[in-house]
Design a protein that fits this description.
The chain is 38% helix and 19% strand. It has six helices and five strands. The protein starts with 7 loop residues before the first helix and ends in a 15-residue tail after the last helix. The model has no long low-confidence stretch (mean pLDDT 88).
Length: 154
Amino acid sequence: MGKTKLNAATAELVRIDPDTHPLFQKLWNESGMTRIREDNFKTLRDAPGLALLCLVDDPVMYKETFDMVVIGPQLAGMFDDTLSASGFSDPASGRAIASSLGIHRLPAVVLFRFGEMLGAIEGLRTWGEYQREFVQMLMQPVLPRKKTITIASA
């Protein structure tokens, strides 16, 4: 996952492993949401029809990740089986995927239609705000993909 401000000993004590944590296990095994990493992100994005993706970051550093683990399946359920795909990012991949989409604040929820991004809701919101923003996204014309430049140190 991303950089941490914790020393090595503390980081190991508080480390949360999404492969074994019960909330993540329930999410990926029972909710119907696919675990999304950089290698399978394009499959979800390019799904025929409407697709929803929840993006999260390291749950140790960003406690909102656990909120989204609970909210994400409920947001997908809001669409009453009209989604052709729904996914939830692996915390280790969430930041990179978000960056490729021009999203700066996590957690975020993204809607795609036939491979084109309709929009993103960044940060946690109330239920009514999610509903309003989804309706606005669905009623707007498809937005072109944001172009981003990745700057890495040598």
